[in-house]
Design brief:
Protein name: TolC family protein
CATH class: Mainly Alpha
Keywords: Cell outer membrane, Membrane, Signal, Transmembrane, Transmembrane beta strand, Transport
Shape: elongated
Strand content: 5-15%
Strand order of the largest sheet: 1-2-3-6
InterPro entries: OMP_efflux, TolC-like
Subcellular location: Cell outer membrane
Number of strands: 6
Low-confidence stretches: 1-20
Main location: membrane
Order of helices and strands: HHHEEHHHHEEEHEHH
CATH topology: Outer membrane efflux proteins (OEP)
Distance between the termini: 49 Å
Mean pLDDT: 86
Number of domains: 1
Length: about 450
């Protein structure tokens, strides 16, 4: 029994440790964010409401059916329900029946409301999908920020390791009298600055991890982390397409454009519904009723009056009525006309918004295209600068070690290398993110493969 308990605890501990050590990939972060975002859940509830509205619109096309019954007792003066004559007695009466009404024609408003409800469901789905698109971009940006900060941290630690070696060699040079002791102090100051930079980069990594965890709505910040990967510049053919080509393709699948267009179509349907109120309304109706009264007197075959039973009276006094009713609108204080005019204004506003959304998309794509080109050039320039700074640093080291350069100039050469390496990391991930944005507008899913 003790062995079994130990085994269970061991399995639980291993499972808990594995869960704590989980490293999230970008794809996992995106999927988790979409599935657990509170705004997404709210939009999904809105979509469910719209689906109910569609059922309401369908129900308006069907006839209704209502049943009614009443029981009453009268004492004193009343009207006998069987002969409609006044009486002064105690009577017990029961009335029952059911009725049905159906709109046969009302300017096709019910059919148009059903079509609008179906369109509203599609529009709500576009709205939800557009939110998920935005979440994917935000998560990708936050994820790449963590990776960028981690790589910057690695660089700063590597720089500090080099400085430690320089510090060791400088001590030897000072002891041998090659360089003055003041040069050692300068190297020690450089090492202290690099230690501070390591602390700053560690803070940036932690803050960026917290930011992504908050996007994913994960509260265990301390144990949340992304996979340890260093991403190279990805290969992409998206730049082989012009901004106009990317924009034309984005118009076909972007959910924000589909949502904006759906709003125009909904406004058009609202205008049709408003105009339908000018048409006459034709309603069909059917009613069935029966009654019972304990004061009912009818003659039998011999002409003798008697009170039929409850069951017999329900059959004797039942009856139906049916027909149609036509209502023609003539004047209602310009309410219908005003409603039509409001619908026209709303339609025009949604049309203008649709055109504005297309212009905004085109501007965004053009800016993203320029950003990709600019940041790639900046990355290439940063790489060349880093290479030159490293060569200059090696040359400075050789001169410093033989006493031909003072510690201040040597530390400046090293600082320029540090800055160049940091700029390479920054421009690299700035380029990767903007490339992923442009690919996303071209219909390519966000991945870091």
């Amino acid at each position: 029994m003790k062995f079994k308990l130990t085994a269970i605890l061991l399995v639980f501990t291993i499972g808990w440790a594995t869960a704590q050590q989980k490293k999230w990939t970008l794809e996992e972060c995106v999927l988790y964010a979409v599935e657990n975002n509170l705004t997404v859940e709210q939009f999904e509830l809105d979509l469910e409401n719209v689906m109910i509205d569609e059922k309401d619109a369908l129900g308006d096309l069907l006839p209704n059916l209502n049943a009614s019954t009443s029981a009453s007792s009268n004492t004193g003066f009343s009207i006998n329900p069987t002969n409609n004559l006044p009486t002064n007695s105690t009577a017990f009466n029961v009335n029952a029946g059911f009725s049905s009404n159906v709109v046969l024609y009302n300017g096709l408003q019910n059919i148009k409301r059903l079509n609008r409800a179906k369109m509203a469901a599609i529009s709500s789905q576009y709205r939800l999908d557009n939110l998920k698109d935005d979440i994917q971009l935000n998560v990708a940006n936050a994820y790449l920020q963590i990776v960028s900060n981690k790589e910057a941290l690695k660089v700063s630690r590597a720089q500090y390791a080099v400085t430690e070696q320089d510090l060791k060699r400088t001590k030897e040079l000072v002891e041998s009298g090659v360089v003055p002791k003041g040069d050692l102090l300068e190297i020690e100051a450089t090492a202290a600055n690099q230690e501070q930079q390591i602390v700053n980069n560690e803070s940036l990594v932690l803050i960026s991890r917290i930011n992504l965890a908050q996007l994913l709505q994960i509260t265990d910040y301390e144990n949340f982390d992304v996979s340890e990967e260093t991403f190279n510049i990805p290969l992409s053919d998206v730049l082989n397409n012009s901004p106009k080509t990317i924009f034309a393709k984005a118009l076909e699948f972007r959910n924000d454009i589909k949502f904006s267009k759906a709003n125009v179509e909904l406004a058009e349907k609202d205008l049709e519904i408003a105009k339908g109120a000018f048409a006459p309304t034709l309603t069909g109706f059917f009613q069935y009723g029966t009654r019972y009264s304990d004061v009912t007197q009818i003659p039998d075959a011999n002409g003798i009056a008697y009170t039929p039973s409850f069951k017999d009276q329900l059959w004797i006094f039942d009856g139906i009525s049916y027909g149609a009713q036509l209502s023609i609108p003539i004047f209602n204080g310009w309410s219908t006309r005003n409603s039509v005019n409001r619908s026209k204004i709303s339609l025009e506003k949604f049309r203008l918004q649709f055109e504005q959304d297309k212009l905004d998309l085109e501007t965004t794509i053009n800016q993203a295209y320029v950003d990709v080109t600019t940041f790639y050039k900046a990355y290439e320039a940063a790489e060349k600068t880093l290479e030159a700074r490293r060569l200059a640093y090696e040359y400075a080291r050789e001169r410093f070690e033989v006493g031909l350069m003072n510690s201040f100039d040597y530390s400046q050469a090293q600082a320029r290398v540090d800055n160049a390496e940091a700029e390479v990391v920054r421009s690299k991930y700035a380029y990767i993110f903007r490339l992923k944005i442009l690919e996303f507008y071209f219909g390519i899913p966000i991945t870091l493969e």
